[in-house]
Inverse folding.
C-alpha cells in the first residue's frame, strides 16, 4: 500500500510542503523496501541485457566499475563485493581468496559471464562452499566460427588482401604472384582439446575435407572420433603432423605454456597455430621467436598472455605472419545475449536453492549438505 502511494506521489509530484515531506518519507520507505530485496549482488561491470534486469527483479544490484566499458579495478571490486550474496563477474576479474574474504560469509555463488573460469580460484570457492558457475557451451559454435575465420585469414592472407585494396596499393588487377597463401582443404588440422569447441571446429574441418587429428590432455573423445573420423595422437605427433594446430583446451597447470619452444620447433615450417582458448597456453616469448625465425608460417590469435596487448608487444610488428583479434570468440549479439541470460539464471537459481545450468564445482553440494 505504501509502495502504491509512493508511486502515486512520485507521479503527481506534490508541490506543497506536506506533500514534499510525505514524498521524502515514503521515498525513504521506498529505499527500505528496495533494501528488503532478498539478496545483494555485485556485478563487476555492465554486461548485455537481460542479465541485470533479471537479477534486479529479486536482488539489489551494485555495479562495481561505476559505469563505462572498462573492467572494475581491483579496489572497486574488493569494496563492492562486501557483504554480497552473489558476484557476477567476467573473465577480466581475478576472483581469489582475497575477493571472497572481502565478500564475507554470505557469499553463495560466483557466476561468471564466461565459459572459462580460470580467473576464479575455484578450489578456494569449493573449500568455502561457494558455487562457481559458467556459461557452459553457449559460446561453442561462435568460438568455433572464429577459429575457422583465423584458419582462413592466416593461410589465405585475408587481412593483407583487404589492406592492399583499401590502402589503394592494388595496382595491376589480377596478378599471378599476388598474395599467394596455403590451402586449407586437404590439409591436416590438429586439435588440442577435443571438447565442445574442439569438436565444433572438427565438424567444420570435415566440411573442408581436412584430415583431423587430436590430442586430449585427459581422456579421449570416442564419440567424436567416430562422428568426424578423427584420430587421437600423442602430443608429439600432434605438433609434428598438423598444418593447422588449433588450441581448444582449458587453461590449467597441465596446459600452461604447453606450446613452448620444444613443441614449436617440432612443427612444420609451413604450419599455422590458431589460438581461441587462452593466451597462457602458449609461451608468447617462444612463439614470437618461432615466428621471427620462421620455425612456423604464422599464427592466428584471438587471445594473449596479457590482454590487452601492450603497445610494444613484438606481435604487433609481424603483420605478415599473424592475424590478431581482441578476444572476440563469443562476440555475436545472439551468443553474448544468451550468455547474459545464462549467467543471470545461474546466479538466481543458486540463490533460490535450485540447480544452476552450468556448475564449475558441482561438488559444493556435498559441502553444503554437510554443514
Ligand atoms: C569465455 O567465455 O571463456 C570466452 O573466452 C569469452 O567469452
Amino acid at each position: 500500500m505504501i509502495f502504491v502511494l509512493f508511486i502515486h506521489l512520485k507521479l503527481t509530484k506534490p508541490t506543497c510542503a506536506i506533500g514534499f515531506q510525505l514524498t521524502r518519507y515514503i521515498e525513504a520507505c521506498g529505499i527500505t523496501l528496495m533494501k528488503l530485496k532478498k539478496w545483494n549482488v555485485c556485478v563487476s561491470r555492465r554486461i548485455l541485457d537481460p542479465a541485470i534486469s533479471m537479477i534486479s527483479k529479486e536482488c539489489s544490484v551494485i555495479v562495481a566499475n561505476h559505469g563505462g566499458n572498462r573492467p572494475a579495478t581491483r579496489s572497486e571490486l574488493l569494496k563492492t563485493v562486501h557483504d554480497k550474496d552473489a558476484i557476477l563477474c567476467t573473465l577480466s576479474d581475478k576472483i581469489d581468496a582475497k575477493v571472497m574474504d572481502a565478500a564475507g560469509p554470505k557469499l553463495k555463488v560466483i557466476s561468471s559471464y564466461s565459459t572459462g573460469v580460470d580467473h576464479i580460484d575455484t578450489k578456494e570457492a569449493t573449500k568455502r562452499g561457494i558455487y562457481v558457475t559458467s556459461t557452459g557451451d553457449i559460446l561453442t559454435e561462435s568460438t568455433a566460427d572464429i577459429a575457422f575465420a583465423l584458419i582462413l585469414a592466416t593461410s589465405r592472407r585475408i587481412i593483407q588482401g583487404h589492406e592492399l585494396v583499401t590502402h589503394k596499393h592494388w595496382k595491376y588487377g589480377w596478378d599471378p604472384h599476388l598474395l599467394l597463401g596455403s590451402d586449407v582443404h586437404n590439409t591436416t588440422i590438429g586439435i588440442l582439446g577435443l571438447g565442445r569447441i574442439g569438436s565444433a571446429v572438427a565438424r567444420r574441418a570435415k566440411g573442408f575435407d581436412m584430415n583431423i587429428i587430436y590430442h586430449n590432455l585427459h581422456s579421449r573423445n570416442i564419440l567424436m572420433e567416430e562422428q568426424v573420423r578423427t584420430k587421437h595422437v600423442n602430443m608429439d605427433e600432434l605438433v609434428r603432423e598438423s598444418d593447422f594446430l588449433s588450441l581448444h583446451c582449458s587453461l590449467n597447470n597441465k596446459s600452461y605454456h604447453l606450446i613452448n619452444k620444444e613443441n614449436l620447433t617440432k612443427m612444420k615450417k609451413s604450419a599455422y597455430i590458431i589460438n581461441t582458448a587462452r593466451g597462457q597456453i602458449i609461451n608468447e616469448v617462444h612463439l614470437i621467436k618461432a615466428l621471427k625465425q620462421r620455425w612456423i608460417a604464422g599464427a592466428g590469435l584471438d587471445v594473449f598472455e596479457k590482454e590487452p596487448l601492450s603497445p610494444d608487444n613484438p606481435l604487433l610488428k609481424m603483420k605478415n605472419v599473424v592475424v590478431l583479434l581482441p578476444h572476440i570468440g563469443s562476440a555475436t549479439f545472439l551468443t553474448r545475449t544468451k550468455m547474459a541470460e545464462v549467467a543471470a539464471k545461474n546466479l538466481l537459481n543458486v540463490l533460490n536453492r535450485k540447480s544452476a545450468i552450468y556448475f564449475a564445482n558441482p561438488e559444493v553440494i556435498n559441502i553444503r549438505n554437510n554443514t
